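Ticket #4471: complex job returned nothing on first submit. Input attached below:
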Amino acid sequence: MEDAEECITGLCLGLGMGGYVPKKGKQKENRPVLDLAFELCPKGEAINLNHDKVESTDSDNSNTNNNNKGCRKKLRLSKDQSSMLENSFKLHTTLNPVQKQALADQLNLTTRQVEVWFQNRRARTKLKQTEVDREWLKKQCQNLSDENKRLKKELQELRALKVGPSSPLCIQLSKTATLTMCSSCDKLVKLNEGNNNIGLEGTN
DNA sequence: ATGGTCAACGTGCCGG
DNA sequence: CCGGCACGTTGACCAT
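Support reply: We reran it on our side without changes. The output follows.
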């Protein structure tokens, strides 16, 4: 009888790596449920069995073999691999098939792994950029809010000034006419003797 | 125990 | 139709 991990393994294999239950739809033929296999070294580091596969003379399909070996362990890319991928990403965020293959050969990875790494890397970049944008917008919003507050205060102060002959908002036009600002509607009003006021312009 | 990270996956969409 | 990509998701691994 296998141990508990092996039992879980069976479930993992049945459902695929992510335990994802596929919905109806097209399936990529060249994407096996398990296209890679890993095992743990005694220290707990993940070893990519694909590296062995490269040198292996085994003619049979390693996928089927791996399916019987157990649940795949998570690959951790080495520092060198990561930094080379990063450098490559700095040069171009997408790869053409030739570049992909070259990089895969160079790093001793499969093209699929390189492809997945770039997809995930682009997603991370986008996420980071979204976060940056969000912070920027937040700051802008705060600035506008502050400015709005300041302007409201300024307006309030202007309104508080008594509108009268001594007010700076009251201009004597002639002996009979004065230009003043209406305290309720913020419109410039020409006051004439005889009470026939003429609104001149809105300053709202 | 738990939350974060990340490789790997399934699916849908789009352009050639 | 096919390949490539974005997106959302999963689970192994790791730090705390």
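Residues 1-70 of chain A have pLDDT under 50 and may be disordered. Closing as resolved unless it happens again.
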